[in-house]
Amino acid sequence: MSSVYALLFIVATIVLVIGLTRKIVQYAKTPAPLKIPTTPAPVTQTGVVFRLFREVVLFESLFKSTKWTWIFSWLFHMGLFLVLLRHVRYFIDPVWLPIQLIQPFGKYAAFAMVAGLAGLLVRRIFVDRVRYISAPSDYLWLLILLTIGMSGAMMTFVIHTDVVAVKQFFTGFWTLSGGELPMDPILLIHLTLVAVLMILLPFSKLLHIPGVFFSPTRNQVDNPRERRHLVEWARKFEES
Amino acid sequence: MAGAEFETPELSEHIEVPELVEGTMEHITCFVAKPEHQTDLGFPGEKVENWKEVAIDKMGDLLSRYRSFQVFMDACVKCGSCTDKCHYFLGTQDPKNMPVGRQDLLRKVYRRYFTFAGKYFPKLVGAVDLSEEIIDDWYSYFHQCSQCRRCSVFCPYGIDTAEISMAAREILDSIGVGQKYCNEIIGKVHKIGNNLGLPGPAILDTLEGLEEDVYEEDEVAVKYPLDVKGADILLVTPSADFFAEPHVDGLIGYGKVFHEAGVSWTLSTKASEAGNFGMFIGSYENMRRVSLRIREAALELGVKRIVFGECGHAWRIAYSFLNTLAGPFDFLDPDYPVPQHICEFTLNEIEKGTLEFDKSENDDMSITFHDSCNVARASRMGDTPGGQFEIPRKVIKAVVNNYHDMEWDTIHERTFCCGGGGGLLTDDLMEVRVKGAKPRMSAFKNVMEEKGVTHLAAICAICKSQFTKVLPYYGMDMFQIVSVHQLVSNAIVLNRKTPPEEAPGYGEDDDE
Ligand code: SF4
Ligand code: SF4
Question: Where in the numbering of this chain does the 4Fe-4S ferredoxin-type domain appear (chain B) (predicted)?
Answer without folding.
Answer: 67-96
